[in-house]
Design brief:
Blueprint: H1 3-13, H2 19-32, E1 38-41, H3 46-56, E2 64-67, H4 68-75, E3 79-80, E4 83-84, H5 90-98, H6 105-125, H7 130-138, H8 147-156, H9 158-177, E5 183-184, H10 185-193, H11 204-217, H12 225-234, E6 237-238, E7 245-249, E8 252-255, E9 258-259, H13 261-268, E10 273-276, H14 277-281, E11 285-287, E12 292-296, H15 299-305, E13 316-318, H16 325-336, E14 340-344, H17 349-361, E15 366-368, H18 373-379, E16 380-384, H19 387-394, H20 402-411, E17 413-415, H21 421-429
Parallel strand pairs: 5-6, 12-13, 12-14, 14-15
Antiparallel strand pairs: 1-2, 3-4, 7-10, 7-13, 8-9, 8-11, 16-17
């Protein structure tokens, strides 16, 4: 740097009125890579206006405005403390004043691109897992799953991001080596990282691990807890195996080739039995003695119906609203056995959308149960649907629930299961 530029920077430091002016000039230089653009201070103080006058030789008043290129030209005509600034570049002065190296946004982006690519290459060299390698290769595309998260975190802490990325890959490798049933997330995390919470869903390592699982399963990144738990379970990972629940009465549940003795006792006594995901992970099959299974979403409706469970001809399941991973696991076992699935829920956006989702999952086995238009007439309430409920109804187009959804939309009011209990009870207790 020239002595003239150093003298100029020292002069500016001694006069606070130049501080915000130079901050604006620095932004322009970083944005354009040269003296370009217009500086404007709408709330300029008198001291700042006087500072500008010291460069341009003319008076200023708020809003203070000037072109960057003209500031540089005027600066080169100045003479501070007997030192001429002819030939001094504004960039030199700004770098000395702020004690920094000015890089344009383009240059910074190129640097980040290079460092990001080098990070991916280094992790790629440290993994032999085919899925991990394909995912890492895909991360070169800004549209790939995980790219935006990685790029953002790498800009903040490249070394930390690389470490978490490698741990996510090693956790996935360990998962693929685990062939004896499901593995618990905290145990997997502790084995690979020594920290049982490193793979928690809120950590960077945990998010990257989820992106890897999504990549292997050809699924989008989970948007909510239900999708996340389902993703874990489908990939042989147990995250929370006791709070995901489903309740049933009357099912034949197998462990190995025989009916599970504990659940056999519940079935023979026609008693309600609640299963968690840990229970279900040990089951090898589920069967309905009648080949039919009835499903309700509401706990109160379920328990009311179960007052007559001794007279049921078929099993009854309660999903407690949106089916949990445990509920879907149980229904998958029943579907594998070919059971017909009769589902009844509220006739509103939420209830009908759940029914539509189950139809999409089990199209050949699913049948709506008292969810037709005439059922809606019997259970329609005075509760007005909200916009969220109306939006869910629009998602029923093209499904067996479309006609019912149209009736609910037209009425604008919700229909509730509780008003159909007598019909549901008759179906469960009378010979089909």
């Amino acid at each position: 740097m020239s002595e003239q530029a150093r003298a100029c920077a020292a002069y500016f430091r001694s006069r606070p009125g130049y501080r915000r002016i130079l901050e604006q000039l620095l932004k322009k230089y970083r944005s354009f890579g040269r003296a370009a653009g217009t500086v404007r201070l709408d709330d300029a103080t008198q001291e700042e206006c006087d500072a500008a006058r010291g460069i341009f030789g003319r008076p200023f008043s708020p809003p203070l405005r000037f072109q960057t290129v003209r500031f540089e030209a005027a600066l080169q005509e100045c003479c501070f403390q007997g030192v001429s600034l002819r030939g001094v570049l504004l960039k030199e002065v700004l770098e000395l004043y702020f004690d920094t190296e000015i890089k344009t946004k383009h240059e910074l982006r190129q640097t980040l691109d290079s460092r990001f690519s080098a990070m991916l290459a280094q992790v790629l060299e440290q993994t032999d897992c085919d899925t991990c390698r394909r995912w890492l290769q895909a991360l070169k595309d800004p549209q790939s799953g995980g790219y935006q998260l990685l790029r953002r975190e790498a800009a903040r802490d490249l070394e930390g991001t690389q470490r978490y990325l490698l741990q996510a890959c090693r956790s996935f490798e360990q998962l693929e080596r685990h062939t004896q049933g499901a593995v618990r997330l905290a145990v997997l995390s502790a084995q690979v990282t020594s920290d049982p919470h490193e793979l928690d869903c809120g950590t960077l390592c945990g998010k990257l691990f989820q992106y890897l699982l999504s990549f292997r399963s050809c699924l989008d990144y989970p948007e909510n807890a239900e999708q996340r738990d389902s993703l874990y379970y489908e990939n042989g990972v147990l995250c929370d195996s006791i709070s995901s629940l489903v309740t049933q009465v009357g099912l034949v549940l197998h462990a190995g080739t025989e009916e599970h003795p504990a659940y056999r006792s519940f079935r023979q006594k026609q008693e309600i039995c609640t299963l968690n995901l840990a229970n279900l992970s040990d089951l090898t099959g589920a069967r309905s003695p009648s080949g039919r299974v009835y499903i309700v979403e509401n706990e109160m409706v379920f328990t009311q119906l179960c007052d007559r469970s001794g007279q049921f001809h078929s099993p009854l399941i309660c999903t407690s609203g949106q089916p949990s991973v445990a509920a879907l696991r149980l229904l998958d076992l029943l579907a594998a056995d070919g059971a017909r699935l009769f589902y009844s829920g509220d006739l509103d956006g939420r209830g009908l959308s759940i029914a539509a989702q189950l139809w999409g999952r089990y199209p050949k086995l699913f049948e709506p149960w008292h969810m037709a238009s005439d059922d809606y007439e019997r259970c329609c309430s005075n509760v007005v649907l909200g916009e969220t409920s109306r939006a869910l109804l629009r998602g029923c187009a093209g499904t067996p629930l479309e006609t019912s959804a149209a009736a609910v939309t037209s009425s604008g009011r919700a229909g509730y299961q509780e008003l159909l209990i007598s019909q549901l009870e008759a179906d469960l207790t009378e010979t089909p």
